[in-house]
Amino acid sequence: MGVVATTKTEMTDMFYENIKDLIEPEDVKEYVVSMLVDIAYNPDLPIRHETPDTVIISKHFENNDFFELMKRGDSYLFLLGWFPKYTTRRQSPGKEFYFNWGISSYNFALSLIHQNRLEHDPKLVSKLANSFYNNTQAVYSLKKRLSGNEIVLSLEKRMEESNMRIIK
User: Fold this and answer.
1) Could you tell me the CA-to-CA distances from 165 to 118, 130, 142 in Å, in that order?
2) Angle CA 39–63–92, to nearest 5
3) Are 109 and 76 in contact (CB under 8 A)?
């Protein structure tokens, strides 16, 4: 059974069960699990492009694009947790870059909530920024716990076939 044949509920339950002791508080844990399931079903992360990340993130902020800022933060969180070797390869700007811009993406999204009085949970977004490092470690631990699991193998294959060809 591959990732497509697995229901989102089954995948959510599997991820939650294996990450529940790694992330606190509950709302952050639920967000990270939901993010992982979303990426499993749509592995096209916004990380392969010609424009520097700093320019892209600044444009999202200037355009008041809350969702794109959150997606970028999520992508860096996933990348650092699931594919940490990608962030240390020779052509990569390095782990610090991804940590800094992942946190900044969430912080910019938080600023938009306050500036534009958006109907999103500022406490959750703040917690995501503040627990970014811990959350990447939790995702890495989750991947290790599920190593060899058919769902995880299918996800990794789809990621490599998608825009993540640059991982290799």
Assistant:
1) 36, 30, 22
2) 50
3) no
Residue 99 lies in a domain: yes
Structure-block tokens of residue 65 = 């694009």
What is the span of the domain harbouring residue 148? 8-167
Residue 116, C-beta contacts closer than 8 angstroms, at least 6 positions apart: 64, 66
Please give the average per-residue pLDDT across 74-102, as a whole number.
Answer: 85
**In a domain? residue 140:** yes
Average pLDDT for 126-132: 98
Total domains present in the chain: 1
pLDDT digits (tens, 9 = 90+) for 93-109: 788 988 999 999 999 99
- Mean pLDDT, rounded, for 8-23: 93
Give the burial string for 47-83 (b: 16+ CB within 10 Å, else e): beeeeebeebbeebbeeebbebbbbbbbbbbbbbbbb
